[in-house]
Amino acid sequence: MDSLIARASRGGYVDPNWPFPGGKNDAPVIIYGYTPSFALAVLGVILFALFFAVHIFQLLRHRSWYFTTFSVGLLFEIIGYIARTLSSKVNPYNLIFFILQYFFIVTAPVFLAAGIYTILSALINRLGREFSVLPPKVILWFFITSDAIATITQIAGAALIGVKQSKRQDPTTANNILLGGLAYQVFSIGLFIILTAVFLVRARRHVKGSGLGTFVAAFSVATLLVYLRTVFRLAETAEGLGGNLSTKEVYFGTLEFAPVVLAVLLFTVWHPGRCVGRRISTGDDGKGNMA
C-alpha cells in the first residue's frame, strides 16, 4: 500500500473506497486522478446520443452533407462517454476504459470544428463574397487541410498515449505529439475566428436583412465555446497526465463537457442546413453549387 500511495502522489490516485483490483489491464493507480462521476458520464452518453439522433435526422432532411463531420464528432463523444461510464461504475483502474474515453473525447471536437469551418463558406455564399477577406474556396480548403493535420496529429498522439499507458511506459513523447496537434488546432480556430469576425462586421447590414442574425449569433457563440474547450485541452496536455487540470473533474466538467454540450445544443436548435442552406459554394457561378 505504501508503494501505491507513493505512486499516487506522483500523479495517480487510489480510491480508498475502491481497492486496487489487480487485473491484467489495471493500473496500480487511477490515472484520472479521481474516480469519474457516474452521473456526469451517463449524462454525457444520453445527451450526445440525443443530439446525434437529431443531427442525423436534420442532416438527411436538409441534405446538408457539408455538415456530416459534426455527426461523426457526436458519435466519438458517445463512445468516449460510454467508456467513461464503464470507468466510473465497473472499474476506474482499467487502462482500456481510460484509453478509450481519452482517445474519443479528446479527438471528437476536431470533427465538430470541421463542421463549423464549412459554415463560414456557406455564409459567405449567402451574404456576399465581397465581404470576405479571402475567397470561400481558399478558406474552405485551408481549414479542411488544417483540420486534417490536427486530426491526424491528435489521433496519433492520443493513440500513442494509450499504447504507452497500456505498456506502463513513459507517455511524454506521445503527450508532446498530442500537444502539437492541439496547439495547431488552437492556432487554426483562432485564425478562423478572426476571419469570421472580419467577415461578419463587413456584412453586418446584410446579416440583419437576411434574417440570419440569430443563427449568426448562435454560430459565433458555438465557435467560441469549441475554442474555449480546445484551449483548455492544450493547457491540460501541456501540464501532462497527473497535472492539476487533468486530476480535478470540475475542470473536465466545466471546460470540456459543458462547452461542447452547449455548442452542440446551439447547432441542434439552429441547424445550418435549415438556417443557411443545403450546399456551400466555392466556385464562381453564384448558384450555390458544391465545388
TrEMBL record:
<feature type="transmembrane region" description="Helical">
    <location>
        <begin position="65"/>
        <end position="83"/>
    </location>
</feature>
<keyword id="KW-0812">Transmembrane</keyword>
<dbReference type="InterPro" id="IPR007568">
    <property type="entry name" value="RTA1"/>
</dbReference>
<feature type="transmembrane region" description="Helical">
    <location>
        <begin position="95"/>
        <end position="117"/>
    </location>
</feature>
<feature type="transmembrane region" description="Helical">
    <location>
        <begin position="29"/>
        <end position="53"/>
    </location>
</feature>
<keyword id="KW-1133">Transmembrane helix</keyword>
<dbReference type="GO" id="GO:0016020">
    <property type="term" value="C:membrane"/>
</dbReference>
<feature type="transmembrane region" description="Helical">
    <location>
        <begin position="138"/>
        <end position="162"/>
    </location>
</feature>
<feature type="transmembrane region" description="Helical">
    <location>
        <begin position="212"/>
        <end position="230"/>
    </location>
</feature>
<keyword id="KW-0472">Membrane</keyword>
<protein>
    <submittedName>
        <fullName>RTA1 like protein-domain-containing protein</fullName>
    </submittedName>
</protein>
<feature type="transmembrane region" description="Helical">
    <location>
        <begin position="182"/>
        <end position="200"/>
    </location>
</feature>
<feature type="transmembrane region" description="Helical">
    <location>
        <begin position="250"/>
        <end position="270"/>
    </location>
</feature>
<dbReference type="Pfam" id="PF04479">
    <property type="entry name" value="RTA1"/>
</dbReference>
